[in-house]
Specification:
It contains 16 helices and 12 strands. It has helices spanning 14-34, 50-54, 71-75, 78-93, 106-118, 139-145, 156-162, 184-191, 208-228, 258-264, 274-281, 294-303, 311-316, 331-343, 345-361, 367-379, and strands at residues 5-10, 42-48, 58-62, 97-103, 123-126, 148-150, 199-203, 233-238, 253-255, 267-270, 286-290, 323-325.
C-alpha cells in the first residue's frame, strides 16, 4: 500500500495539546468509518505534546519549545517559530498532507494556515482566534485561510459567519472533563479535607511566566485572609504542566485536580483565562486577578476592544466577577472581595446563579467528536 496521507495538527501549547488529543482520539474512529478497504489511508502527525502522542499523533516538534505569552515575549521566540514554519512548509510541499488542523495559538497558526492554502491544503481551525477581543482586522485574513472553523464560545459562530467563514459552535471542551463533577463532600474526601473547614483556593496560572507574575500577590492574599480568619485553610492548585516546587509556598499545592479543588473550595482567587470558566462550571464564587509585563499590557490596552478580560465575564456579557488587573492586583483588595463572598450570603448566591447561566451558554459535551467529524468530512474528499 502507498504511504498514508497526513493530517497535520499544530497545537503549540499545553492547552492545545489537550484539545488536539481529544480530537485525535475521536478522529481514529471517524476515519475508519470513511476508509475504503481494510486500511485507513491517513495518519496523524503534528506539533504538540505527550497527550497528542498518547492519542496516536506522531510528534514532529514538542510544544514546550514554543509556548510563550505576551507581545514582547513572543519576539524572543521568532527564530524558533520561523524555523518550525519552514519545516512545516517543506512537509506541505511534498503533496502528502491531506488536511491541516490548527488549534488556538493564532500568531503562529495563521502563518501555518496561509502556507497550507498556498499548497491547496484544506484547513480546519479549532479554538479560533479571539478576534472579538482584539485583532478584528484578522477576520478577512481568517476567511481566506479557513475551510471550517470550530469556535468554542457561543457568540463566535455568528461573528465568523458574518465575515464569510464556515463556522460551527462545537461547545467548550472543558465540558467533557466536567461530565461527572463530584459534590463538595466527595471532592473534599478525595483531597483529604474535612467537611467543616473553610477553604479558599488559589489558581496562579498554568505557565511559568504567568505564575511568576501572580505568585507573590496570590500568596500574600492567602496570608492576609488567614490573618483575618486564622481558621481559614488556603490551598494552591498547580497545573500538571508546571512544577511549583521551586516556589516557597506556605500552603499545600494540589496538582492536576482543578475541578476537585474548585468543588471543594468555598471561594477561589483565579488568574484570567480558561480557569475562570472551570470555576464557573464548578459553581465556585471567585475573584479574578491578573498581571502581565508592563509593555505587553500597554499594547493590549490599546488593542483590546471589550470591557472585561475574564472569559467568565465575556461569556456572561457583564461583570459578574470582579477583576483586579495590573496595579489593582493588590492582596488587600482581593482579600476584601473573597471575604465578602465567604460571608455575604445574598452576594455569594447571586454570583453562583450567574455562574450557572455562564455554564448553560457553553454548550454541551462532545466538542472533540464534533471537530473530528469536521476533519473527517474534509479528508473524505481527499484523493
Amino acid at each position: 500500500m502507498a504511504d498514508k496521507r497526513e493530517i497535520l495538527f499544530v497545537a503549540a501549547e499545553a492547552s492545545g495539546d489537550l484539545h488536539a488529543s481529544g480530537v485525535a482520539k475521536e478522529l481514529g474512529a471517524a476515519l475508519a468509518g470513511i476508509a475504503s478497504g481494510a486500511d485507513v489511508r491517513w495518519k496523524m502527525v503534528g506539533v504538540g505534546g505527550d497527550k497528542m502522542k498518547d492519542a496516536g499523533v506522531e510528534i514532529l516538534s514538542h510544544y514546550k519549545d514554543l509556548a510563550v505569552m505576551g507581545f514582547v515575549e513572543v519576539l524572543k521566540h521568532i527564530p524558533k517559530h520561523a524555523a518550525l514554519l519552514k519545516t512545516l512548509k517543506a512537509r506541505m510541499a511534498t503533496g502528502n498532507v491531506a488536511a491541516v488542523v490548527l488549534i488556538d495559538y493564532p500568531g503562529f497558526n495563521m502563518k501555518v494556515g496561509r502556507a497550507a492554502k498556498e499548497f491547496g491544503i484544506p484547513v480546519v481551525y479549532y479554538v479560533t482566534p479571539q478576534v472579538w477581543a482584539w485583532g478584528a482586522g484578522r477576520l478577512p485574513k481568517l476567511a481566506k485561510i479557513i475551510d471550517k472553523a470550530a469556535p468554542i464560545l457561543p457568540f463566535e459562530e455568528p461573528l465568523l459567519r458574518k465575515h464569510g467563514i464556515d463556522a460551527t459552535f462545537v461547545g467548550h471542551p472543558l465540558l467533557d472533563r466536567a461530565i461527572d463533577l463530584p459534590s463538595k463532600s466527595e471532592a473534599r474526601k478525595r483531597l483529604g479535607i474535612s467537611e467543616t473547614e473553610k477553604i479558599v483556593a488559589l489558581f496562579p496560572g498554568s505557565r511559568a511566566q504567568e505564575i511568576s507574575l501572580h505568585w507573590d500577590d496570590f500568596i500574600a492574599t492567602g496570608k492576609e485572609l488567614q490573618r483575618r480568619d486564622p481558621s481559614l485553610k488556603i490551598i494552591v492548585s498547580g497545573a500538571p504542566t508546571v512544577d511549583l516546587m521551586a516556589k516557597e509556598s506556605p500552603f499545600p499545592i494540589i496538582y492536576g485536580a482543578s475541578f476537585d479543588v474548585l468543588r471543594a473550595a468555598d471561594a477561589a482567587v483565579c488568574k484570567s483565562g480558561t480557569t475562570t470558566l472551570e470555576t464557573a462550571i464548578s459553581e465556585c464564587p471567585m475573584v479574578l486577578g491578573y498581571r502581565t509585563g508592563s509593555i505587553s499590557y500597554a499594547i493590549a490596552k490599546r488593542l483590546v476592544k471589550i470591557p472585561y478580560i475574564g472569559l467568565v465575564n465575556v461569556v456572561a456579557g457583564k461583570g459578574i466577577v470582579k477583576e483586579f488587573i495590573q496595579d489593582m492586583l493588590q492582596p488587600q483588595l482581593l482579600a476584601d472581595e473573597i471575604e465578602r463572598l465567604m460571608n455575604d450570603e445574598v452576594y455569594r448566591n447571586n454570583m453562583i446563579d450567574e455562574l450557572r447561566v455562564v455554564r448553560s451558554k457553553l454548550g454541551q459535551p462532545g466538542a472533540a467528536k464534533r471537530v473530528a467529524n469536521m476533519v473527517a468530512s474534509v479528508v473524505a474528499t481527499d484523493n
